[in-house]
Amino acid sequence: MKPSEYMGDDYIFIVGSPRSGTTVTAETLSAHPDIAYLYEPYYLWNYRSGSGADDERSAAQASDSTVSFVRRHCHAFWKQSGARFVVEQSPEESLMLPLIQLTLPKARFIHAIRNGYDCVHSIAREWDRRARSVEK
After folding, report:
1. Rounded to the nearest 5°, which phi and psi values hold at 35?
2. Which of 53, 58, 119, 127 is most deeply packed, by most CB within 10 A?
3. How far apart are CA 35 and CA 29, in angstroms?
4. Percentages of the chain per state (helix, strand, coil), in multiples of 5
């Protein structure tokens, strides 16, 4: 199989709202010796599909060059890791499902769900923490 023909059989995407537990889920799964973790690869999905005014990516952005680029990169990471599976996580990927599904049609998904009020409260606390660290 050529890397550009890779279908994502060994990829698991953790999707969900920011601050919903996607990172802790991916980190927990990657503690298993058969699972490697690709942490928030923003460049992977934006490099060829473009970075627009928002993080949404549609199936229309699955150009041949985008699909080939992502497949080659994912295949290389999987092979280099030596793991059976790769877990990938980024909150933005929740807005890219059509592009991901066309690019890696055999990939699996885990949807992390957390109470929306808790997510918003956690986001507000995190922004406050960051603001205080910048002020210092």
Report:
1. -130, 125
2. 119
3. 7
4. 50, 15, 35
Residue type, 135: E
Query: pLDDT tens digit string along 89-108?
Result: 987 888 889 999 999 999 99
20-62 pLDDT, tens digit per residue, is 999 999 999 999 999 999 988 878 887 766 666 777 888 888 8
Sheet holding 108-111, edge to edge: 35-39, 85-89, 11-15, 108-111
d(CA 81, CA 119): 32
Contact 91, 26 (CB under 8 A): no
Residues 6+ apart with CB under 8 A from 34: 83, 84, 85
Pair of tokens at residue 135: 């002020």
